[in-house]
Amino acid sequence: MDRFFFISVLGLLIVAHRVAGNMACDSIAMLEELENFDVEEVDETELSKVPSWTSERGGKVLVNVDSYGAVGDGVSDDTQAFENAWNTAWPCAERLVIQIDGTIVAPDEPKNWDPNLPRLWLDFSKLNGVLFQGNGVIDGSGSKWWASSCKKNKSNPCRGAPTALTIDSSSAVKIEGLTIQNSQQMHFVISRSDSVRVSDVLVSAPEDSPNTDGIHITGSTNVVLQDCKIGTGDDCVSIVNDSSNIKMKRIFCGPGHGISIGSLGKDNSTSTVTKVVLDTAFLRETTNGLRIKTWQGGHGYVRGVRFENVAMENVVNPIIIDQFYCDSPKTCKNQDISC
């Protein structure tokens, strides 16, 4: 577990850079398969049955950060209290419930951030069968980070900023009921994980906050997003880098840049995204609606995508496929399709 900073805790379309001879037939078969690729309701999935953390005697064991010295005043650094509580609970991480009912606040001064962990705040790795739940708030205190971004001031150097919450290299994880707001950069990243369900989560940041993606899925499989409301300064949802079997249902998006597959293929890299379903969404006041974005010169493809029951209001580009995507302070060089 990397170091955390805790202040308080109270309890359609087929796109390819390189087209193989049999891709068209494969894609048609995949789209037919998607007809039965439905999003299960919450009570129909094993992920909703993530067990409580129990002792050998069968009773629940409560590990409270307050008992480990947390002050919880929104000013004091309660990192050590959280680490001590986590080290007590971690040996039973396969039967763990993390209850968040208060507000977790990040340090708001970029210069005070740990230089060894410039892009991480709450980072959980190698979890199996863990439930995050509660009515609490994870607040990234990102305003000073946004002000220093090269997107805001082109004379500033472009640098990364922390992600509020990361689930990495994990399986059978459920996140339910939380609010994630004002992240320094991305709000919630699901990375290299399998079988993750996110439901009834609110993600919020100002419309002009740079690079504040709502939920970012990378290198992950069997991810379900359901009944989520997302409004940020970037993509509400972004799906990248070898992700597959991504299901979304009843998603509200806005403001933001829409629901995106990509960007893919930056720096001539290879990226694929397959089997993505969005069923029932409403997008309001976004720059894009449903988007696929790829960089010039990249390898890979997007295959097997089904979007249905989507309503939009005041969306600039309702459906857009952009194979000349460029998110760089400098003009991107034109490139031929990679071979």
TrEMBL record:
Q: Which Pfam families match?
A: Glyco_hydro_28
Localization of this protein: Secreted, Cell wall
Q: What is this protein called?
A: Polygalacturonase At1g80170
Which family is annotated? Belongs to the glycosyl hydrolase 28 family.
Q: Which residues does UniProt mark as catalytic?
A: H257
Give GO MF terms, alphabetically: polygalacturonase activity
Biological-process GO terms, alphabetical: carbohydrate metabolic process; cell wall organization
> PANTHER family in the record, alphabetically?
PTHR31375
Keywords (A to Z) from UniProt: Cell wall, Cell wall biogenesis/degradation, Glycosidase, Hydrolase, Secreted, Signal
N-terminal signal peptide: 1-21
SUPFAM superfamilies, sorted: Pectin lyase-like (SSF51126)
